[in-house]
Amino acid sequence: MKRITTILSLFLFSALSSHAQIFWVENFESGSTSGMGVSSYTGPNGAWNGASTGGGLYANEWYVSCAEQGHITGACGDICGASSGLGATLHLGGSASFTGDMGASYLASSLSVTNAAAQSPIINCSGHTGITLSFYYIENGEGTDDDGSVYYSPDGGTTWSVLLNTAKTTTCSGGQGQWGHASIALPSSANNNANVRIAFVWINDADATGTDPSYAIDSVSLSTSATTTFNASFTTSTITICEDSCITVTSTSTGTIDSVHWSAPGATVTSATTTPTTICFPTSGSYTVHLYAHSGTNVDSASSTITVNPAPHPMVTSSGTTLTTTGVSATYQWYKNDTAIAGATSATYNYSGAYGSYYVIADSGGCKGMSNIIIHTVGVAQVSANGASYSIAQSGTDIFTLYTTQPLTADMNVQVFDATGRQLLRDEWRAGSTSGQYSITGLPTGIYIVRIGNADNSAVLKWLKR
Fold this sequence. Notes:
466 residues, mainly beta, Jelly Rolls, Immunoglobulin-like, six-stranded antiparallel sheet, 1 helix, 46% strand
């Protein structure tokens, strides 16, 4: 949900104790992958409007779509789906009658002279003073000839004045813009004013000189630093964990709270709107967890930094009957068929010809990581199908285990037949696993046929039950 994620990312720079009341937010979630003109977009606060003063035959235009994906500060621009981002943006693209929506990319020819504004709906600032406008953006162009700026109107759009000429942002390698952040106080005329509007304006001349990107805007908010009657706060089960681990966060917000929203860019939030909730961190690094507490139209925020330490990622190779793990870790523990092997605590292990599924868990600095699985099938029935090898081994009196050399890409049926062809078992082997265990009680010793298969491929093994 981009709306939640974007709102929460507005305060990446805030300390845990900082608070601000956000009373107006625009995230430009148009649902368009490309081509929606700004005048066709109606957001949660009302309809936006495109306005142009003059312009060439192929003047550049404002769009609200995923052709340019929103990001927080420091990320390089791209289209939606190319990386983990915040969804659609408001951006200045080419003429609808010529190149169309190119993301934040513009035409600088003599036929593309542009002076275009994307104007917000009326913003009701009643009850708010000391108002700050904040947003994320990218911008390039050509000095003041091809340039972006922000305008302000205290009277619903009758008169406009320049509020901010945004600085050019850094350009990433490959020519994409690097997202930045801007924040500016609105004039005092916005205080308690029910008729405020803002606009983002782009101009470019006809000298056929310019450099992409043009101008893109996302996560626009209006906030006030006025004292709140409620406060957002939360606790974490820990602030230092290992990658592939999770924490529990619990809101301790005070005052009248209507709802809460959680966000942790780069991590996975189990439920963004409940407390407590669980947040899981797939890779190492420093993450910021945000809580936004809502009371009516006001929002208060709190944040905390979580340090995620790297875990080892050992790889096991085999030579003869010796297994060796890569990398250097503090401790090791080898496993056979998911059971720890007593005394097997070095970087190598010799399995002495015993069939089974082997792997190692390495510990480095208190963080553990599991290796790939090596399946040893000496003396065990084994066949190959669809690029994988399948094997079977007896694991108990009435239990057998199936192994595969690579995780199943689809569910497989498992069937067991006796010598007469009578089916004794029908079960499933789930996709994603490398082993499956099955039980048939009371079978006499002898040879049985085990068929593994689905609509795409199959393998047949003989099981000598001892």
